Amino acid sequence: MAQGDSGAAAGIVGIVMGSQSDWPTMRAAADVLDALGVAHEARIVSAHRTPDRLWSYARDADARGIRVIVAGAGGAAHLPGMLASKTCLPVIGVPVQTRALGGLDSLYSIVQMPRGYPVATMAIGGAANGGLMAAQILALGDAALAGRIAAWRAALSASIPEVPEDG
Ligand code: RP5
Question: Rounded CA gap, 163 and 102, in Å?
């Protein structure tokens, strides 16, 4: 089992990223999917450095049982959009924060897709929400998962204090 994969042989959610350096950001998607009991896999698939890997990943994802892709990249972040050009599976884009431009470059690269090829774009660094969005899509056909998401949100809500404290 590769690092970042859940126990299932094939992940239902494909978490892909342009570089190893994106993993500290993207592991938040894996963490939330773990918490919700959603099978997932994590792969490095670079639009520029491994274009053949990108093409075969997108081409084979549906047949391999992937239902949603969460794709994170930084800078010239073409990975989510190129995946969306090759597969009809929903693609959720996560702009990774960059040193030079703070992630605005990543955000603009991901969000401005042409008509016909949408990428559901999260906030800069918003990998946890990417995982949650993937789970919510899957929960449309999975009442048990919908219940786990509701419980997860209720726990988050309950953890928010009503009165601020010093320090
Ligand atoms: C992008 O370039 C990756 O998604 C990453 O965010 C960025 C920098 O990659 P490294 O130079 O750290 O491998 O393709």
Answer: 33
pLDDT tens figures, 71-85 = 999 999 999 999 999
Report which protein residue has its CA nearest ligand 1's atom 6. 74
Tally Cβ neighbours within 10 Å of residue 159: 7
CATH number assigned to the domain comprising residue 112: 3.40.50.1970
pTM beyond 0.80: yes
Q: Is 56 annotated as a binding residue?
A: no
Q: Pairing mode, if any, of strands 40-44 and 68-74?
A: unpaired
Residue nearest to atom 3 of ligand 1 (CA): 18
Could you give the CA distance from residue 79 to residue 119 in angstroms, rounded to a whole number? 10
Distance 74 CA to ligand 1 centre (A): 6
- Domain hosting 97: range is 12-148
Ligand 1 geometric centre to CA of 144 (Å) = 37
**Residue 127 falls inside a structural domain:** yes
Q: Is 22 annotated as a binding residue?
A: yes
Across the chain, which has 167 residues, the per-10-residue mean pLDDT values are 59 94 98 97 98 98 97 98 98 98 98 98 98 97 97 98 93
Could you identify the atom of ligand 1 that is nearest to the CA of residue 21?
Answer: 12
2 is a domain residue = no
Ligand 1 site, residue 96, Cβ cutoff 6 A: yes
